[in-house]
């Protein structure tokens, strides 16, 4: 049974061992028998905002308010600690004020294979391209050290892309799959030089990580302004695959918000633009297929298949809002 003692902030875990952690961002953490102290280093701001115990027993601690120096404040930092020796294994930081590495709700997501993923939705690639966002994979044994960059992270390229932000920037858009891989939702992603907020859902390799810039070549994307692919919760299936609802997807300029639900391959990912060829879609404006209205608009079944509720679906040329429920093959 896992047991944690935490002085402050949020604790989550996927481990199955007995671990005691005392976390403090100010002064000294007072650990009792069998516990170990984790005290924030110099520059700490919100040390211990989230504490995640990995399946291998190592511990990830976030500090999105970490200051690099007086000129670079709130760059953020994420630390990996050895669960046995209690020593720091790795430190990942931002480089620009308000990068807030590891910030937001669930800034770190643990994977079933013992690795982890860090979201930094406010990360800036430079002074001109701000809040492009970044998602960084971490090795659960050796960690990921250094500064967040396109070479070690999946990033956006346009101001306000907020890669890794879910329904809004404060929430994580990283979804762990049962096979150890993950999916990154970025509903505010813009096509470079094209439509804005088309959105993207990017598959990530849980063994090595996925880095580079989000694009239609490595992601499932929208194609029309405000398609916001990835805004609705990505649903992980029990067989390792996943489903991406896009309730605001437009079929064309005359048929808006028809909605679409797209199956994704959990081993390789699914890429390209959402279309009638790769998705279940509506046909009438405001069908909002996949927009069931609940927290999870798509319902995963225990056998790996799924069900799509579309309560606003219209009979083409007939009554409106008759609704529909559609079974989907998870394989």
In short:
This protein is an all-beta fold and 331 residues long. Helix content is 0%, strand content 29%.
Main features:
mainly beta; 331 residues; 2 domains; single chain; globular; six-stranded mixed β-sheet
Could you explain how this protein is built, in words?
The protein is built from no helices and 25 strands. It has 331 residues and is an all-beta fold. The chain folds into two domains: 41-153, no CATH class; 156-330, no CATH class. Strands 1-4-5-6-7-11 form a six-stranded mixed sheet, with no helix packed on it. The chain has a five-stranded mixed sheet with strand order 8-9-10-12-16, with no helix packed on it. A hairpin with a 5-residue loop joins strand 13 and strand 14 (182-186). The radius of gyration is 21 Å and the shape is globular. The two termini are 34 Å apart. Residues 1-20 and 24-32 have low confidence and may be disordered.
Major sheet: order of its strands? 1-4-5-6-7-11
How many helical elements? 0
How far apart the termini lie comes to 34 Å
User: Taking Cα atoms only, what radius of gyration do you get, to the nearest Å?
Assistant: 21 Å
Count the E strands.
25
Which residues form runs of ≥5 with pLDDT under 50? Answer: 1-20, 24-32
What percent of residues adopt helix (DSSP H or I)? under 10%
Shape: globular
How would you state the average pLDDT, rounded? 87
- Whole-number count of domains: 2
What can be said about the biggest beta sheet?
6 strands, mixed
What fraction of residues sit in β-strands?
A: 25-35%
Oligomer: single chain
Order of helices and strands: EEEEEEEEEEEEEEEEEEEEEEEEE
Structural class: mainly beta
């Amino acid at each position: 049974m896992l047991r944690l003692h935490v002085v402050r902030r949020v604790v989550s875990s996927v481990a199955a061992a007995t671990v005691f952690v005392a976390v403090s961002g100010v002064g000294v953490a007072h650990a009792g028998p069998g516990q170990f102290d984790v005290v924030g280093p110099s520059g700490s701001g919100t040390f211990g905002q989230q504490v995640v115990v990995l399946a291998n027993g190592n511990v990830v601690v976030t500090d999105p308010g970490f200051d690099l120096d007086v000129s670079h404040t709130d760059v953020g930092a994420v630390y990996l600690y050895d669960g046995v020796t209690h020593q720091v294994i790795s430190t990942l930081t931002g480089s620009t004020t308000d990068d807030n590495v590891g910030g937001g709700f669930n800034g770190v997501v643990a994977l079933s294979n013992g690795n982890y993923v860090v979201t930094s939705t406010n990360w800036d690639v430079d002074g001109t391209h701000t809040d492009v966002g970044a998602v960084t994979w971490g090795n659960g044994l050796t960690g990921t050290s250094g500064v967040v960059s396109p070479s070690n992270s999946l990033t956006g390229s346009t101001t306000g892309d907020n890669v890794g932000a879910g329904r809004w920037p404060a929430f994580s858009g990283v979804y762990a799959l049962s096979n150890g891989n993950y999916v990154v939702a970025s509903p505010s992603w813009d096509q470079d030089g094209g439509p804005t907020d088309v959105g993207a859902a990017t598959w990530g390799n849980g063994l090595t990580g996925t880095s580079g810039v989000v694009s239609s070549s490595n992601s499932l994307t929208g194609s029309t302004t405000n398609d916001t692919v990835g805004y609705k919760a990505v649903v992980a299936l029990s067989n390792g695959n996943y489903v991406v609802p896009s309730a605001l997807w437009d079929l064309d300029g005359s048929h808006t918000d028809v909605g679409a639900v797209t199956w994704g391959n959990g081993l390789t990912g699914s890429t390209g633009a959402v279309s009638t060829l790769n998705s279940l879609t509506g046909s009438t404006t405001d069908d909002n297929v996949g927009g069931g209205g609940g927290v999870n608009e798509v319902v995963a079944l225990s056998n790996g298949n799924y069900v799509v509720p579309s309560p606003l679906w219209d009979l083409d040329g007939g009554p409106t809002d008759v609704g529909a429920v559609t079974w989907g093959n998870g394989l």
